Amino acid sequence: MFEYSKLESERFGYNIYRSSHENEINFKQLKLEIIENEVDIVFIRLNSLYKRSNMKIMNMGFPVIHSDTLVYYKCQLDKIDYKSFKNDLSFIEFDSSAMQILDFLVKNIFSDYTNHYWTNTYLNQESAILGYIEWAQNYFEQSNDSTFSKKGWIVFKEDKPIGFATVKVDGKIGEGVLYGVLNEYSGGGVYSDIIRFTQNYLKEIGCSEMRVSTQIQNFAVQKVWSREGFYLFQSFDTYHLNTMLQFKNDSSPIETLIVTEDNLRLFIDATGDDNRVHTDDEFAKSKGLNGKIAHGVLIDAIQSKRFGTLDPGHGTLYAGINNVFIEPVYLNEEYIMQFKEIYQRNNIYQIITIIKNKTDKIVFISYNVLIKK
Predict the structure, then answer these.
(1) pLDDT tens for residues 163-198?
(2) How far is CA 188 from CA 32, 88, 163, in A?
(3) What is the rounded distance in angstroms from the CA atom of residue 213 to the CA atom of residue 133?
(4) Dihedrals φ, ψ of 263, to 5°?
(5) How confident is the model at residue 210 (pLDDT cuts 50, 70, 90)?
(6) Over the stretch 239-295, which tens digit does the pLDDT of each residue have?
(7) Could you give the CA distance from residue 357 to residue 35 in angstroms, rounded to a whole number?
(8) Mean pLDDT taken over the chain
(9) CATH pick for 254-372 out of 3.10.129.10, 3.40.50.10490, 2.40.128.110, 1.10.1060.10
């Protein structure tokens, strides 16, 4: 699965996609999809069973963050007996009058909650909280699909709203999607009662299994789940690829790039790298190329000229560089180089260089971390 996330794109102001994989992932295909869609950020969930294969994500060339590990628990509802509540609670199904209450609850419950958004400095934390509100509000809508449904409740104690619960049902499997309890009411078994309520509801409507999930560091809820008959059965590692291919696309400096024979000869004289794919057309074609190609490091040197003399300017030093080579840069062909500054604080700069050919296809991406002395 690789799909555009409209809500998250609008919420955070980037071109955001999601990708989730139960089995091993084809990273080559993922790279092509990222480039084709000029993605800014990809949220990727990979099955933790394939740790060794998943580590290939580090070799894609894109900046990558391991943002969390998501753990899934489940219980067999036919083995769960009805349990009474520890507290006197009321569960009122979502309706239009509950929207304002839900907004209040989510803002207060999740104000300090950490999730995968929190690890990414490009994502605004206040906007992340709004994501929980949107997520919960989706449970006011009803599905026309007879095999799929979703439902939500506001939880009251002594006529005061103290929490909420949402579930979805797909066939015989129910999922507790999002729960919350105000801090001043946590403890005392309130959360356990909410879990029991949703277990009972799903069992009554014919579900045979219930699932719940959370970040691995959320120990408190996992203790409750274990006491209420759930067991751990699956986990996914979440990664963010901050590819930033569309960000500031219309306001970034652009230059024309043509690598000439003279450029090539000077570089070979300076480095001694006379690999025949750079010097012999026929040899290059025998290797599947269209002709002689420029050295990858020569392209780095050309972009370095801009960084060192114009932006950020004299006194600039490299702190790091990561290149993604998609297609070769051929001699005497015209390309467009675009420079996008995506971060600047004090004397630290992050600038992406994107090179496109005459058909507007990306052939080279370079992620540069620079320090200006």
Answers:
(1) 999 999 999 999 999 999 999 998 889 999 999 999
(2) 52, 11, 14
(3) 18
(4) -55, -45
(5) very high
(6) 999 999 998 766 789 999 999 999 999 999 999 999 999 999 999 999 999 999 999
(7) 14
(8) 92
(9) 3.10.129.10
133 — pLDDT class (breaks 50, 70, 90)? confident
Residues 49-66: what's their mean pLDDT?
A: 95
Report helix, strand or coil for 30.
Answer: helix
Domain ranges of the chain: 2-241, 254-372
Phi, psi of 225, deg, nearest 5: -55, -45
Looking at domain 2-241, does it have CATH number 3.40.630.30?
A: yes
Q: Are 172 and 209 in contact (CB under 8 A)?
A: yes
Identify the burial level of 66 via C-beta atoms within 10 angstroms of its C-beta, where 0-12 means exposed, 13-18 middle and 19 or more buried.
middle
Q: 44 and 239 in contact (C-beta within 8 Å)?
A: yes
Fold agreement between 2-241 and 254-372: no
**In 211-310, which ranges are continuous DSSP H helix?**
219-227, 261-271, 276-279, 281-286, 296-309
Cα separations (Å) of 267 from 15, 162, 272, 308?
Answer: 38, 69, 8, 18
Which pair of structure tokens corresponds to residue 32?
A: 């092509």
CA proximity to 75, closest of 237, 198, 218: 198
